Structures
1.
Amino acid sequence: MNAPTPAAALPSSPATIADSTRRAREILDTLGRIVLGKPQALRLSLTCLLARGHLLIEDQPGVGKTTLAHALAITLGLKFQRIQFTSDLLPADLLGVSIFDTAQHTFRFHPGPVFSQVVLADEINRTTPKTQSALLEAMEEQQVTVDSNTYALPTPFFVIATQNPMEQLGTFPLPESQLDRFLMRIGIGLPDAQAERELLAGRDRRGMLAEMQPCTDPDGLLAMQASVASIHVGDAALDYVQAILGASRSLPDFSHGLSPRSGIGLLAAARAWALLAGRDHVRPEDVQAVLPHVAGHRLVGAQPGDTPNALVRRLIEAVPLP
């Protein structure tokens, strides 16, 4: 197998925006019964996947990062594979390996766990940069190359990575090139008192995951993504995005600005956010809603100690809504 197989075609009759919005809200309602008290994190996660992006969830252990990723895969009807990243994980453990077949007198490729529709890279920053970089081609090109042969990954294909805070022991910071492959980075945070009480008194989340039923299937998801792509972006939203990109490159607060690819991703996320609101067009407010999660991990401050939240806040303050 020397070339990637053709990507699956989009459905011939994509769902209408109203149909996709209704289905998306059903998905969010289902997720909300598993991940309690986190409607914003759920909406951002679904926004990222509808925009055809990869998702990075960064938070302390035990707040539900893995549960959220698994629940997303189930509700979308996608094949799911969890990979626990550790310091001794090798690229071949992720991508697969070619083994000599004595009966056929040839090498046969044995696919690794990355050959799934949703790949959960659990605690991605606990493995070495060499293994982290093995995901780069998969995330960007939806294919992997092993022993000079290229193999296509399934369609749709998403990476949902979880990451522990950098100050914890045994972590390797993700390089900028790897971070840029994630359309959005979100946190979950601790539950409020009511949600925590329900978690403590309720059923085990793993048991509930086993009983979940899909709200759609891969074709349905592709139809929803086609609806997102049809969301109209007018001049006001385009002007706002361009002003944000320009400010990130010209203000002295930043050592370097956002790339054109960041702007394209920002618009894709804003389209998905608008669809979840039931609209057929993007407003500047949609761009502002997703900006912290699209730009926060891409901005680099000019001063030591600048936090992503502070940098995004300065950017929002510098570019007023049209």
2.
Amino acid sequence: MQQRPVIGIPTQNLKSIDRIPEDLPDSWIMNQRYFLACVSVGAIPWMVPLLDEDPDTLRGIYDRLDGLFIAGGVDVDPSSYGEERHELCGRVDLPRDHVELAMVRWAIEDGKPVFGVCRGMQVINVAAGGTLVQDCSLWTDAIKHDYFPGAGWDRDHLAHDIRVAETSRLASAFGEAGGMVNSMHHQGILRMGDGLVATAWASDGLVEAVEAAREDQWMVGVQWHPEMLIDTHPGTRRLFEDFIEAANQYHNASALV
């Protein structure tokens, strides 16, 4: 029977979300869609608490994982990549930044598989030493990227097309060098992190996907939300399946050490 890999999904602070009553108790939460998408391709998801002040426990959790899934959410705090906050930067969650950045950096060192979506792609880039543009309106000739559900858009709305590098994990899963994606972000990659390569772009040149330059590490970040497309787009399902297969291989290799 094939191993079901354990995939860690870091949470977010409830109070980092807009329009939440301040008198609610401190809580860690995360959108169910990420967990359901991972379960649908055979993984066991593990909800990771934001124990940013307890690195020993956090490392203990990390060591039991076969892969990391870094989800979407609020903005990465500019202090996490050494820049001053721009007035267009939105709500942030520093404990989440600390936990996700630590775990991704450990995974880069260990070769553990990482899949990041939307904010998750940006976290991968920052963990590798890159920076972000704090609002896409600051990007030259920017198209619209912020098709947020709160403004009336469905989460699976296919907002714009992308161009995919032909020799990439993404193209291998998609079986094509382009396609339409949903888009719910207002930040993006400015300077690429070390050891990463861009593998997809929007028509305005904004990076829409990154991968590890190393062939021996499965690390993919996409700027859209594939968890909403996994049931309707075969290439998206294959991308999730590839991630889980990589996590299986990592588990099996670790068991031999």
3.
Amino acid sequence: MTRRLPLAPLALLAALALPATAMAGPVDDIVRLDLLPGWRAADGTQMAGFRVSLAPGWKTYWRAPGEAGIPPQVDWSGSDNVAGAAFRWPVPEVFEVGGFETYGYSEQVVFPVAVTPARPGAPVRIEGRLEIGVCQDVCVPVSLDFAADLPQQERRDPALALALADRAQTPAEAGVDGARCAVSPTDDGVALTAELPFIDGTQAVVVETGDPALWAAPVTVRREGGSFLASTRISHVAKEPVALDRSGLVLTMIGDGEAVEFRGCAPA
């Protein structure tokens, strides 16, 4: 099965094609990809992982990279017996790059991937290309080839299991209430103000619309009593009217190595 996610705009720059375990060329000292074959879960799902190692000072990005950056994307061409694949995202760090607030990882990150077989019980092979952005003073799109036959054993890889545990908490796990949102029209879209619980150590709030045609401006956050008020503007990339689905919103509060993720937002 071939499955390809759309490329980010910065991928208009020339990408560098590199094998996963024997890289050569100018990015030798910047980034390395190792594939963690993982294990087969009791429900038949194959858990694998991409381990990205970066040179000192270099960073790569989370699913929502912020004002500047390139989110990881995968071309699954060459894979066999793959019906779908979903990233499990470790908690990102908050960076400032070129005056922009961004979200991602330094030094090393493992991206767990849950692979759903098209034919349960049959062997699974993943083969394709991981496309990421790596940044220091400049951002460079990099393409990293990978290929592996996934094992059918259930013994867990400790590095991959640790990355799976490094995830955002749900509000229930964090012991806090859900998010409430107020929406009002603007000349070019809508203004969104989310009321979130006060969580000590919060460094940033990220708003994802759940709709690739909708763009959320950088979020401003202020404390009001026992809550945070996070405000943003949401507009349509083609300047069309905005139809915002509150149930599709994802709001993530990111702190020092921790995060709380709110899926959906009740009316304020």
4.
Amino acid sequence: MTESPRSALTHELRDSLARAIAQVNTVVLGKRREVRLAFVCLLAGGHLLIEDLPGVGKTTLAHALAATLGLGFQRLQFTSDLLPSDIIGVGIYERETGQFKFHPGPLFTQLLLADEINRAMPKTQSALLEAMAEEQATVDGTTHRLTPPFFVVATQNPLDFAGTYPLPDSQLDRFMLRMSLGYPDRDAERAMLGAIDRRSVIESLSPCLTSEQILELRHACTNVFASPALIEYVQALLSASREHAEIRVGLSPRAGLALLAAARANAMLAGRPQCVPEDVQTVFPFVAAHRLTPATSARADRDRLALQLLESTPVR
């Protein structure tokens, strides 16, 4: 019989995770669903893309996560003149030794905030691919491992903003979840306007988790049970995306693995011993939409198509 993830974790670890989520919610007001999704992505071992208008709290969420998780943190502002070596690092010749010594770039951290990632050229964006997929970077034929857990939080502005470049599908596919924050509700905005500056709040935060605890939580997520019936439901969603008349390229097997991993993390956060269809349905729009290629060129159709797939695919 599969052991409940709640019983498999110590009380201390469960309490630390609850405190971490609560602490981020004290900074990012009125966005409990989005904060939960950020933790789903972290615990599922994925990377997070936040797409929204400037000024709605994308960077604030990333800073709050960094302060709460106790991870090494680097923020990198993406610009049109940013080079791959500015991200990964570069080998510099040392006359004393007669050799090149690798000087790591900001990529070599645990939580990387890639701010306004779609302001950089596609070649620069692609510098993150190997790190996001394999937690390593190769420079001059030498592979350098990153320190786990490695978590990328990227922000991007809508594509109708000047000076932005669409992320290629290969880059989008490396992000487990894509979400938007949107404007706060009236009560949250009033509380925000009447409170002290968010930067001061973030500076006062204390880490609630350690790297070791995050890795333990990730391991617990992999042990959450997914029944054959649930896996059939996930597969049905994948098949439906490939057969839909308005979708040119549907979801890949990698998307299916990401969907199942995110559903497991959502179940663990809810204290359930196994995934249920509601876990899949909760995360599906955020896992699937950015991976769909509509038959038309309208990228905005992705969200609508993801919801349509969810509504038209029965639970098995």
